[in-house]
Amino acid sequence: MPHTEPALEARGLTKSYPGGRGKPRVEALAGLNFSAEAGTIFALLGPNGAGKSTTVKILATLTRADSGAAFVAGIDVGRHPEEVRRAIGFVAQKQVSDPLDTGRENLVLAGRLQGMSGPAAKARAGELLARFSLTDDGNRQVKGYSGGMARKLDVAIGLMHRPQVLFLDEPTTGLDPEARADMWAELESMARTGEMTILLTTHYLEEADRLAGRLAIVDHGRVVVEGTPEELKDGLHGDAVTVELAMPRGGGGREVPVSGALEALSGVGLLRGPQLDGNILRGRADNGAAALPLLLRLLGEAGLEVASATVSRPSLDDVYLRHTGRVYGNEQERAA
Ligand SMILES: Nc1ncnc2c1ncn2[C@@H]1O[C@H](COP(=O)(O)OP(=O)(O)OP(=O)(O)O)[C@@H](O)[C@H]1O
Fold it and tell me: Where is this region: Disordered (predicted)?
């Protein structure tokens, strides 16, 4: 594979499903495009029903697109699905390991099913148990594993045959915060080696922010924005600056209404898009911390009293809101 060829590529994918009982068809994908470089983690983020799972299923050859094309490790998924299957690992949300077998037995079986010889499968199983800190538990039945251990075993199963591309569908959903942090550390170390491309779907913005080299936000079957987490946050043009103004108590000689705040800042170019919402002044600045002292001075000189001021780096939540017009957490909670 030439170095410049993406490890994953979706070009204009469309897919609809029957709506059922005379209802119109459901448009799951409406011309979805993205590409991921080899050796990176690429995350697909989006609300429930956005089309993430459908995209992954098409790339992993589990379903076909109605139109468009997709390539995995340079192989056309529509034309050579068998070849694609050999090149990928797929870690679904549902546990795949047999609870009555030991972790090691599960791994060896997965390797044998992939066509590995007995000794090769055993050696690889030992290697993966060590990599996921499961060596001490490798000879215990999986039914005694914690949720986090069982999930790590599932990822290890997906890695047995050394895939070039690994699909990870919500790898930490349902895990407690400690197990989630542990899984993140494992995935980060896999990403560092750059030996494999990982396509991650996740509901956790924090997970995508931390793990993904690049990410795409999917909404209504299309990629609405794609980039590195930093690029996407920088695209919001600066830090969010929030100033809470003290309400005038009335009667004081120098006190002016808070509405004077916008006037005090006009023409200075310190804050972009300044807005006054009650007594809260909001805007953006390239370097919020550097802008704050002058901002406070100008407000003070205009006779306004500041109760508090905060500067925050934009988060992926802000990026999501900007591109989908909806607050991320609200939707996920409603769907849960
Ligand atoms: N087998 C199916 N039959 C009918 N409709 C389907 C089928 N699979 C998915 N859909 C619909 O296609 C759309 C996209 O679903 P998809 O599962 O790809 O979204 P998603 O982004 O993965 O959502 P989630 O985060 O909830 O897993 C949704 O409207 C969904 O209801």
Answer: 1-20
- What number of H helices and E strands is found in the chain? 12, 14
**Residue at token pair 């406070």:** 296
User: pLDDT at position 4, please?
Assistant: 61
| CATH architecture, range 8-102+150-234 | 3-Layer(aba) Sandwich (3.40)
Q: Flag residues of the chain having pLDDT under 70.
A: 1-4, 248-256, 329-336
pLDDT of residue 93: 84
Question: Is the distance from the beta carbon of residue 46 to the nearest atom of ligand 1 less than 6 Å?
Answer: yes
Going from the Cα of 26 to the center of ligand 1, the distance in angstroms, rounded, reads 9
From atom 16 of ligand 1, which residue's Cα is the shortest distance away? 51
Does residue 216's CB lie within 6 angstroms of at least one atom of ligand 1?
no
For the chain, what percentages of helix, strand and coil (3-state, to nearest 5) are there?
A: 40, 25, 35
CA of 51 from ligand 1 middle (Å) equals 6
